[in-house]
Amino acid sequence: MKPAAARSKKGRGVFCNLPLLFLIGAIQFLVIYSPAIDRYMVMITKGKPGFPSLLLDGRRGFKLLEEEFVPEPRVACDFADPRSDVCELEGAIRIRGSTSEVFVVAPGGAGAANVTGLGAGMNATSWTIQPYTRKGEARVMRSITELAVRVVPPGEAPPCTVRHEVPAVVYSNGGYCGNYYHDFNDNIIPLFITARHLVGEVQLLVAQKQRWWFDKYREIVDGLTNYEAVDLGGDGGGEVRCFRRATLGLRSHKELSIDPRRAPRNLSMVDLKRFLMWRYALPREHAIRTEDEEAAARPRPRLLVIARRSRRRFVNLPEIVALAEEVGFEVTTSDVMSSSSSKQQQKAAGDEGQARMAEASALVNSFDAMVAVHGSGLTNLVFLPMNAVVVQVVPLGRMEGLAMDEYGVPPRDMNMRYLQYNITAEESTLSEAFPRTHPVLLDPTPIHKHSWSLVKDIYLGQQDVRLDLRRFRPVLEKAIRLLR
Ligand SMILES: *[C@@H]1O[C@H](CO)[C@@H](O)[C@H](O)[C@H]1NC(C)=O
Ligand SMILES: *[C@@H]1O[C@H](CO)[C@@H](O)[C@H](O)[C@H]1NC(C)=O
Ligand SMILES: *[C@@H]1O[C@H](CO)[C@@H](O)[C@H](O)[C@H]1NC(C)=O
Ligand SMILES: *[C@@H]1O[C@H](CO)[C@@H](O)[C@H](O)[C@H]1NC(C)=O
Hints:
Layout: H1 2-33, H2 38-45, H3 51-55, H4 59-68, E1 74-78, E2 86-96, E3 101-105, E4 114-116, E5 126-129, H5 138-141, E6 147-152, E7 162-163, E8 168-172, H6 180-195, E9 203-207, H7 211-216, H8 218-224, E10 230-231, E11 240-248, H9 269-279, E12 302-306, H10 317-327, E13 330-334, H11 343-348, H12 350-365, E14 369-373, E15 389-394, H13 400-413, E16 417-422, H14 430-433, H15 439-442, H16 445-450, H17 452-460, H18 469-482
Parallel strand pairs: 1-4, 3-6, 7-11, 8-9, 8-11, 9-10, 12-13, 12-14, 14-15, 15-16
Antiparallel strand pairs: 1-2, 2-3, 2-11, 5-6
Helix pairs in contact: 2-4, 10-18
The structure holds 2-acetamido-2-deoxy-beta-D-glucopyranose (NAG) (4 copies).
């Protein structure tokens, strides 16, 4: 019965497809050999956008198509989101990197195009957009390339020099690029949200492209696109790249995380973790579970203590390690990727950046728990296995809320556990530099009111941590219980 069914299905397929095969053959013959037929081709294809481009890949056919068939464009912008501006363009889109210009070709002229979602006071025929995810921060946004978008009639757009079959994603690699936290928060995660659902069939056009950055994160970038990213500013010779779809800007939902309800295909941070595991060939999906073992034979969960080299160090690191071992952890200390050093150093490390990322991701993935003082080293949590426990030690300075947003929510979104330890004034080395009654120790509020840079200078730049072991012990005990 089964073989018979298969045979009849196959027979029907051949029968149905024969005329189509002849038709395709005839069309190919005509496109290749007959110049007179081009106009006819365009006529039959006019009503069916999408279909003709496959057949009309010959130069002349394409040119005519381009001249005579321009679809009505659709432009949907979102200038209302607090984190980033994004425009989705569909139709005949032409991008000239050398001048940061984007042309949306509209057959009915500029006024007839369907443009939605522009910012207040913007002109629906031309506007600008900065494709970077720190929209609210005027200082850093000043350094970001501005794209000028214009809706133009066919005659006013520059001709294509390169034609891309896949959609474009245009964004800036400038800003805070080089800081480990920002690389993930402003760049990698927004790219993942914006482009992952295209499963590699996407062309990145990168303003302010930094080569060392693309070397360092090669595994991630190559997992997101099958094509070499184009340096928009360095696109020499006034290249005009043509697309049928383009996204200007990256989507960003929250700190170091994704809101699946707003992401294409409901992508989540768990998807990001699986993606990173795939790209870096990480072996451990889940942290250790010690519950099944006999108490005596129980393997010790592995704890990574991130030891910063610059400020916000653990002053009494050896005692912390001893305590963690006593509680039952196997402890390793490392400064893995936590030196948020100068841009210069980051760039110098560009060549080895890729190797350092491979090493860091593999190292971090081998642990079940991590303890770190607030800072970019915590970003390593993206490589921990699921169910792992993240402990953030928050220094003095009314940063508990910020610390929670930046590193407290992401572990939960990745199916991990999170514990926060807010230190007391006695545990801060600031208590050695300032008298006990000084406002720096008593109430950081006025300093916050004064300026963030003063907060950064004092609480992030001058403070180390001496953990009170009696107070910290229950946190480690809880962490180990969570791994049972
Ligand atoms: C304009 O585009 C939006 C979505 O992009 C669509 O909902 C709307 O119907 C379009 N309006 C016209 C007049 O085509
Ligand atoms: C939009 O701006 C262009 C160029 O600045 C101008 O020519 C056009 O009249 C403006 N359109 C509207 C509706 O304001
Ligand atoms: C994503 O989630 C939302 C709400 O949770 C749901 O309404 C929507 O259908 C989901 N979309 C997809 C593509 O699964
Ligand atoms: C630390 O501070 C945050 C924010 O104020 C708070 O939610 C959390 O409960 C505090 N943690 C502890 C252990 O007190």
